Amino acid sequence: EPTVRTELMEQIPPIAIFLQESRPKFPTAFFEYLMPIVVRYLTDVNNQVRKAGQEALLILLEQDLVAQSDIENKVCPILLDLSAPDSDDEYKVEAVNIICKMASMLSRATVEHMLLPRFCELCSDGKLFQVRKICAANFGDICNAVGQEATERLLIPKFFELCSDSVWGMRKACAECFMAVSYTTSPEVRRSKLSPLFISLISDTCRWVRQAAFQSLGPFISTFANPSSAGLYIREDGTLSIRPPAQDVNSNSCQPSNNITVMSSSANAA
């Protein structure tokens, strides 16, 4: 019964946490018995079971309960198979979604060597616009996961493609994550390549794309500022934050000492 398998998946994360806390008594139980079930259910015939398996996997990754060897030898190969060009449409959409979500939880080397090539392929998927839209919406997170060198070498050309996609929803998604992409690049790429690209979005024929671009204008401009003097930085949750001057904080006891936070476009898209 699919409902039984779904319920089982929901219980996997708390069981894994218990096993981690009792590791001396159960040193290999999770890796030998539970992790194979999670991996198998990622390809289950029932979509509710697959969804529960995906959610369980993300929780396990977030809690750092999955060994690096299992990620590279068991999880990534399954996701690459599911997102292959000849894969079923529904499986492919789910796979690219889980790849984008887990990228921030994996090591940079794993993402760059195992997942980035497939992500670049999916950005140009001509069959399913849903796949391209997921890639566009999560583009900033992928850039942040792989760093500046891989972003400029592999991802920026794909970003140009998505920004000129015939589907306006794709261009809108790119406008919403523009600040996060810009933040990962060098000042020269930001000035010579991304600035003209942003102008094209802000002049787009679709009003929804233009509106999204105007909303991202301030955050995009902020990426040109010198962080040491402007106090601008990107927090781990994807928000653009400003550190208030120390003297301003100290001089006004009524003001909280918390950072002023402006939600980034990539966070809004999520």
UniProtKB/TrEMBL annotation:
InterPro entries: ARM-like, ARM-type_fold, HEAT, HEAT_type_2, PP2A_Regulatory_Subunit_A. HEAT repeats lie at residues 115-154. The keyword Translocase does not apply. Pfam families: HEAT. Coiled coil: none annotated. SUPFAM superfamilies: ARM repeat. One of its GO terms (cellular component) is cytoplasm. Keywords: Repeat. GO terms for molecular function: protein phosphatase regulator activity. The keyword Transport does not apply. PANTHER family: SERINE/THREONINE-PROTEIN PHOSPHATASE PP2A 65 KDA REGULATORY SUBUNIT, WW-BINDING DOMAIN-CONTAINING PROTEIN-RELATED. This is PP4R1 phosphatase. It comes from Vidua chalybeata (Village indigobird).
